[in-house]
Amino acid sequence: MSGDAPMDDAAPAVQVPVDNESATGGEIPHRCGYVAIVGRPNVGKSTLVNRLVGEKLSITSSKAQTTRHRIVGVVNRPGAQIMLLDTPGFQTRNKGALNRVLNRTASQAALEADVVVLVADAHGWTAGDDQALKLVPSGKPLIVALNKVDAVKDRTRVMALLAQLGANPAIGAIVPISARTGRQVDALLDESARRLPEGDALFDVDSYTDRSERFFAAEAIREKMFRLLGDELPYQSTVVIEQFEELPGLRRIFAAIVLEREAQKPIVLGAGGERIKRIGSEARQDLERAFDCKVYLEVWVKIKSGWSDNEQRLKSYGYE
Predict the structure, then answer these.
(1) In what order do the strands lie in the sheet with 238-247?
(2) Predicted local confidence at residue 21, as pLDDT
(3) Is-contact 55 209, C-beta < 8 A?
(4) What is the pLDDT of residue 212?
(5) CB 71 within 8 A of CB 86
(6) Which residues contact 218 (CB under 8 A, 6 or more apart)?
(7) Where would you tag: which of 191, 243, 272, 300 has the fewest CB atoms within 10 A of its CB?
(8) 3-class DSSP state for residue 55?
(9) Could you tell me the CA-to-CA distances from 183 to 154, 165, 252 in Å, in that order?
(10) ∠123-124-125 over CA atoms, to 5°?
(11) Where would I find the beta strands (DSSP E) of the chain?
(12) What is the pTM of this model?
């Protein structure tokens, strides 16, 4: 087979370096627990969580650390309930309180979870992946999900990476996946579920997250900022819901985009307010689909100097 052949269905679905467990018969116990999804920025963690849950829980963009909060996504499978913890991408490039809080959120999720899935890009392992790997406590069940295999043309490259990671005794399983297409995500869920502790379900079967509509309203607005502002996006920006009214068939939402400097305000507003109008309009449309009702949304800009480097202010804005 040539070196530039695409990954095909003959590629190994899962490599399990150490696993000699055999079926013992009898009733299969129900398993329930938390699975932390960790990794460096832009490897597809949030896309994967959305795919696994079957709902849009986490916003996505090409920007680093689009995800800023730990979000629980609930997946029910025969004999198991899996609580997925989406986390911010771990990185050390940006300094300041905001980045410290985001890294702490990722580290804490890896520490508290029953199983850790480290998502890496199948194009190759990087120093950022090594940093993310250090988040995983010694002895914690660890699975590596090699994402974007559908985009790798050189199959031998992926096979070499599988062999490299398979030599690491800390890694219990390696699953090549595509979060974008859904390829082999069921295999990833199976590998995660079988490593969870026995226990009863913690969430109702109809529940798929622990977050409120208010939280998702802020995230929808922030996603539109990330997508519409492009390279002009002020990294030190966030969204605060000032008022959220839940009425029959209607949500009334009043939100502030918080910036650090007056000079950033024209970037968000745009000429004649065109940009902020578009941010609000597209966010409203997404929220109407998500909430299955009409949404009235008002969005404005607020300046809070130094908010992103003040841990007390960060906490008041919902950063853990």
Answers:
(1) 238-247, 250-259, 294-303
(2) 44
(3) yes
(4) 92
(5) yes
(6) 239, 240, 241, 255, 318
(7) 272
(8) coil
(9) 17, 20, 39
(10) 150
(11) 31-38, 71-77, 80-86, 115-121, 142-147, 173-176, 238-247, 250-259, 294-303
(12) 0.84
The type of residue at 17 is P
Tell me the residue type at 67. Answer: T
Spatial CA neighbour of 123 closest among 156, 88, 93: 156
Distance, in Å, from the CA atom of 151 to the CA atom of 165, rounded to the nearest integer, reads: 20
- The 10s digit of each residue's pLDDT in 105-151 is 899 999 999 999 999 999 999 999 999 999 999 999 999 999 999 99
Q: How many of the other CB atoms lie within 10 Å of CB of 182? A: 12
- Pairwise CA distance, residues 179 & 63, whole Å: 17
Q: Which tokens belong to 244?
A: 């959220």
Task: Write out the two tokens for 76.
Answer: 């029910």
Q: Specify the amino acid at residue 186.
A: D
Other CB atoms within 10 Å distance of the CB of residue 289: 12
**Quick one: average pLDDT of 145-170?**
93
Residue position matching structure tokens 């990330």: 226
- The amino acid present at 138, given as its one-letter code, is S
Q: Give the pLDDT band (50/70/90) at residue 230.
A: confident
Encode pLDDT of 47-83 as tens digits.
999 999 998 888 777 676 677 788 899 999 999 999 9
Q: Is 144 helix (H, G, I), strand (E, B) or coil?
A: strand
Which residues are bridge partners to 246 per DSSP? 251
Q: Are 131 and 90 in contact (CB under 8 A)?
A: yes
Q: For 282-312, what is each residue's pLDDT tens digit?
A: 999 999 999 999 999 999 999 999 888 888 8
